[in-house]
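COURSE: Structural Biology Practicum
ASSIGNMENT: Worksheet 4, Part C
STUDENT ID: 0417
INSTRUCTIONS: Below are two proteins. For each, the amino acid sequence is given first, followed by its structure token string. Answer the questions at the end about the second protein only.

PROTEIN I
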Amino acid sequence: MIIKLIRYIKSFLWYLHRPQKAYKRIQKTSIPLLLSDARYNAHLNKNLRHILIVRHFTPTHPFYNNHFLQWVHKNYPEISSRIRLKRLSGIPANLENTALFIPWLQDPLKERFPRQYQKAFRLQQQCQKQGIPVINSVDSLSRSIKSVALKLIAQTGIRTAKAIPITDGKSFNPGEYGLSYPLIIREDQIHSTTMSFITNEENLNTVAWENFKQPVAMEFIDVKGEDNYYRKYRYVLVGNTGAPRHLIISKKRFVRADDRVDDDVCREEEWQYTQSFRDPNHDLLNQARKVLGFDIVAFDYSYDNNGEIVVWEPNPFPVLWQISNEKKDSSHQLQTINRLYKVLLDYYLEKAGIRDHF
């Protein structure tokens, strides 16, 4: 005990004489996150039923949906006083007056972060024993794995790419699984990662398998439009309600937001989609949501050359607004994100049983 006390005193004296280095070290700890949550929770009315939102510590999306929380605080301050923020830890949570538990946690939690999954699952069980509803239960997040999700989605009649998990890249033979060239190699469990376009066996033999954690081989489906552009739609299902998030139009096969064609024509096309309120494929996608067992999920999809919808993947942990949106002109998306946030907030209030209070 005395030795530990001496160490603490030495550390304190070290920080005292090096304030700048001390500040940098503190910034790398969980302290800023806890302080940020404490500032938001300062408005919490603990005597009223409220919504508990749990997020990760660093480095896994610690500020997930901060933009949404700021939007609620600015536009509906009386509702923000009914939201309590907490970080995922092994410490039992105080669930007094908790009306809803929302785990904002990275999918698939059990497979990627087993220790964090155990903590979240215990908290979820604690909530369920007290009759507190949960949105996107932590055990359901395993169904976001592409090779699992796409098979389930295909049961609804939606076209999906055939996906085969690869256990040994060097001995992998696509033909044994009914796959032909070209095909795509990507991560099975992680979103927004590098994808390799494989046109023949020679290409396959050059894949750097060590760069993949859980590789999956996927059927290539050509979705290039007649104008030589690729389109990827994102539609967010919130219960039985939906809201379009965006349409990205790109010259590249693997469509990403940073590579979008940002001219007036493409902006207008995206505007027409996002202002439609209801995706033309809503009923089909809602069936897919139910099959996957998610309360909230974003679907990324395109259309093939026959005009048939092709779902690429579900995302129960979608990033709705990124820092990059602040750096470039995304003003045309503000109305879209405001409507999506309103749908999300209404759903939370309804599930918490406090919607009639506002």
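PROTEIN II
(use this one for the questions)
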Amino acid sequence: MSTWTTFRWIALIWGVVAILTKPVFFTILGNQWRGLLINKAYREGKRSNWIIWVSIPLIFLIVFTWWRVAVEPVPLSWILAAVMSLSAVKLVTLLFDYNRFQNWVKSVLEDKQKERGMVIAVTISGMVLIVLAFWIY
């Protein structure tokens, strides 16, 4: 096995977190997880401080990953950066338009079809990142 590159670590961690936070927690915890998201993590009104403390480092990680894409010749590294950039949309909305994001979370969690679509999309992207971590990077 080759050495563990920056891309391998980031893809593996990002993929595992994606799979844990969506399909695993939604399946195992069900309504408890939904309640935690609506009533605690993304509660109505004031944005929780944890959102700032998590979002800002993640935005820097996304910028760092794009920088590594530019300077480290790793095949298909742009895929990781692109998937991470999709998360940047969520992070920016969380930071600058929290009420809109909170309303979106509620709408997804109240509509089983939307929730299922989100869980499937996140599961697939998490699996793609894990595959990239072990077989490409």
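ANSWER KEY EXCERPT:
Q1: The mean pLDDT is 86.
Q2: The chain has one domain: 6-136.
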